[in-house]
Amino acid sequence: MSIYESIRKTLTPIHKEGYPFIAIAAVASLVLGHLWAPFGWIGLIITLWICYFFRDPERVTPTRDGLVIAPADGRVSGIATVVPPPELALSEEPHTRVSIFMNVFDCHVNRAPVPGRIARIVYTPGLFINAELDKASENNERNGLVIESGPHRIGVVQIAGLVARRIVSFVHEGDTLVAGERFGLIRFGSRVDVYLPAGIQPLVGLGQLTIAGETVIADLRSEEGPRAFRSA
Predict the structure, then answer these.
(1) pLDDT grade for 8, boundaries at 50, 70 and 90
(2) What is the rounded distance in angstroms from the CA atom of residue 150 to the CA atom of residue 10?
(3) Gyration radius of the chain's alpha carbons
(4) Which of 149, 190, 222, 231 is catalytic?
(5) What is the pLDDT of residues 194-203, one digit of tens each?
(6) At residue 222, what are phi and psi to the nearest 5 degrees?
(7) pLDDT digits (tens, 9 = 90+) for 97-140
(8) 200 near 225, Cβ under 8 Å?
(9) pTM of this structure
(10) Which NCBIfam families does this UniProt record tie to the protein (predicted)?
(11) How many CB atoms lie within 10 A of CB 114?
(12) 149 assigned to active site
């Protein structure tokens, strides 16, 4: 293996959505550094952070039928039984909602929680309040997807956060996804909600860290009851 290949396999890839931001930060760093050296170093640190923010690592996704995989890196900030947003047109009966909050240091590439066909995509403009707040599900800018996976319909909602200013979607209605496939990202700091079918119990607990495309958050085929969790 060449030195180039060794370095390429060691470094985490950067998503193409980040290239314009990296270029702008790099040019600004050179200009500011020419004016005053400390500004250049500050700009370099910001440029490196932007590279880190837009990282897009490969993931190994469990593929057994019925598994629901975390769509985002982050922390489980909420588990609640609620009526899904009306724009998803799921049903008016309560669903289990698992919310994953992404801070500005988490990878922000979102991945499909289940395999299936995208039956619905609905973008809703809104506010940019703290994504950890429960009311963010109704008030913030968001992009909702409904994925038909066998007999189930899973809702996935990307929610813009306090400093997020754009939700980017890579998919369209009618597209077919495999579990763990990239479907979008959010810039910068945000949240993703997953609406599980009624009666499906989550396999994660509040405060648990998740890895997009790898962490199992529910099993549609399981009849297991609610799990108990404790802090270590």
Answers:
(1) low
(2) 38
(3) 19
(4) 190
(5) 999 988 999 9
(6) -90, 145
(7) 999 999 888 998 999 999 999 999 999 887 767 667 777 777 78
(8) no
(9) 0.88
(10) PRK05305.1-1, PRK05305.1-2, PRK05305.1-3, PRK05305.2-5
(11) 25
(12) no
